[in-house]
Fold each of these.
Amino acid sequence: MDVKRFVDELRKKYPTIEDIQTDLVETIDEHIGVVFQKDWTPEQYEQAVQDKKLQYKKEAVRGVVSALGPIYEKFGAVSSEENKTRIFDNLTTVIEKVDPNTISSFQRDYVKKNILAAAYQNLTLDEARRIVQMQQAFFEVWQQVFPGEPDSEVENAIKKIKEKSGLTLEELQEKLGIPDKEVPPERFELKGAKKEIEYPGMPIEVYLAEKRLQIIDVRNDQRWNADYLLIDPAIFDQMNPTTGYKGIRENEPITLGRNNPLRFELPNTVSRDHLKIELKNGRLIIEDLGSTNGTIIQLEKPRRLSKKQVEVQEASPEREQVIAEFREYVKKHQPEIEKELQQGRDLDELFYHDFYNRNIDQLKYKENDPTVQRLAQEYSVQIEAVSDNLLREAQKGRDLVLMDNSYWVYCDINGGVRNQSALGRFYFNIKPEYVGQIFSKTAEAFCEAGLHSQMKMPMVGDAETFNRFDKMVIYFDNEEERKVLQVLENLYHSNPEAFDDTGIPRFTAEIKNQRGEKMVGVGFAEETPFRNQSFGIIRAKILADVYIEARDSRRSIFDSSFDFESAFRRACLKYQVDPQNPAFNLPRDPERFSELKRRIEARV
């Protein structure tokens, strides 16, 4: 036998001597037996088996451990995926059970050996973070019970782990406020060729000669009945879509060119049959059809913000409450969540419908309830009456424009919002019997005050709609913030009975009036920087990212060993959301929505 090769194979599978010992003991327990003697009782036979196992454990296990011990002390474990997995399992097992009342030197030595073994592994940034966090969690408890100088071997191993993984450089960048190096977008030039793409999480830039278009993700926005939209960002208006867009659906290819311009205005530099876009098995296939001037595709990933851009501030109470509620939701529904994942459902869609926008554990409106059925019938009458009333007001000269998309009824007031880059949203949780009345009153009041806004409410009333926390949404311009607040306060205090106390959408900010009184059923949020990605969908994606990170580390988000705060912060930065106050975006602009921030942060 080639002893060196044998030992090297062991060092690939076992990060510590204790792991070899554990597997040997388990093998002996499973396979060692003795021949039954005819004069034995069952008790004597069982005792003979145990004695034999004990003999093997003393001789074989101790022999192997004593022979390999010096090799592990000198050379350590070999870098391998098997070792990495076992190290994480070992550390997780110890740290989940660590208790100041029972912590022992054996546990300390075992954690230390796994940290030393981890220093030989090729770790990603996230894996290195997890190792560092786990050793910190253990030795914080150890120092409480046995105060003293830190273990120099452990500190050196952690330093090595940080340096090898690049974590040291990242920590230095954060400390000095150095932003991450900008990664240039990927660029592909096509001429009579095609490119298959997985959506990168940011709009895909598509240039037909000098004509710029974009492909954006609308899979979680039921308004469009499409997976993606091809848009002209120069003219497309998601609030009032009339031109400059085309839906992209699975196995429904579209061809674009001057012969078939669809809803686009195309210059002469675009060929008659220029481009074909197809969606197959979730991947986009973009093909240049031999055009004269070619097609360029540009892919950009979401930019990261440095820690300096996320200055320390107190976390909002809404954030803390939502995180606590999310942990409880997962704890209660994890089997159903896992089942949905196995069936291929998008996790962000699940969290959006079952957590973000309603409380599935405390549904106020039940589908088979006769009262709810009656409210549903009355709701249809309400919506029709509101539409008739606002159309009459428009005929009298008021600047009100109604439209719908089969789910929402929209109303543009005084031309609608003007500054798409600085929008706020108010969410109204209104009792079903008052939705139409409040919508009509608000539209008329905004019109009378000269405010530029868009409002929407669901067209169809049923139990699912009634349990929504956002039965009415108002979009408004930042520069009209104070005037909007005044009109809303007047409306609220004239109709307090109309607002439901079942909650507001998760992560939205509670609103108080000038006297510091809470306006029940009213929430605020800043519009996201991602076009056609709603506030709710982005927050659901953040929670989905946190859940997946925990799942990939073989833990749950409510496990004490899982660093929820770090995972949540990383997900927020990915989507440019303020991790301390997720009702707002990053980077923070102190001038934007200053009155709302004053009320929220000061808790007036």
Amino acid sequence: MTTDSESSAVALQRYIAFVEEILRPQLRQTLAHRDALAQEVHEYQKLRELLQELTHSKLQSLQTLLDIGERFHARAKVDDTSLVTVDIGLNFHVEMTVPEAQIFVQKHLFDLTE
């Protein structure tokens, strides 16, 4: 009977080790990836809203608050709103017209949420 309880204890220790050494780190990594993806989706949704506002209001210039990182913002004036620069990934930025940017953002949001 002692061997059954010892083998059960050994099996339990193996399961605990597996959970702590393999599954828990994978869970942390997956949650971090999910959070990063959710943040990217949120940023592209904000960009889509801004592009829609530019299209509907037909503004020639724009004054806005620019996020410069770490929750710091600076006032910015955009003299020409016909072209926007979009981060397309891997730290590449492309200048597009507003309709081109709207198409890109819509496709990218579809890919992100697929």
Amino acid sequence: MGGGRKYMFPKNRTDVEYEIDEKARGTRLDGLNLIDIWKSFKPRHKHSHYIWNRTELLALDPNTVDYLLAHNNYQAQSAVPLRHETHGGEDVAVFAKGPMAHLLHGVHEQNYIPHVMAYAACIGANRDHCASVSSLGSSSPGSLLLPLALLPLGILF
């Protein structure tokens, strides 16, 4: 689940949440409405429901829904929850060298970075790859990747 409703709707379809924002309108050039297609593939006598915000989720009666498609904005977990943000949302450069550096190439969505860092550092879920590396006598593959440089581009130039 995550943002990107505009990729599920036909070109220029108005978004229910951002009606006046032209950037949030549908972008599909094939004219398909993927939400309607998803709803049409349910078995007969089953009920599907599409929700896009917390209010709709809380108002939903689970006894009346067999299939649920939720399209909410994903928010990465925070290791240290803070009252205020510490990042303004500007572009950042991510540099990696060493084992698992191949996971950080090109451009990635911001929610990808914490997952890559956890995977490379062998913390959290998906640690199966760590056992084979640690048997080689080296430290975790993430020991070289964790000191990532997450610097605002303005500092670099």
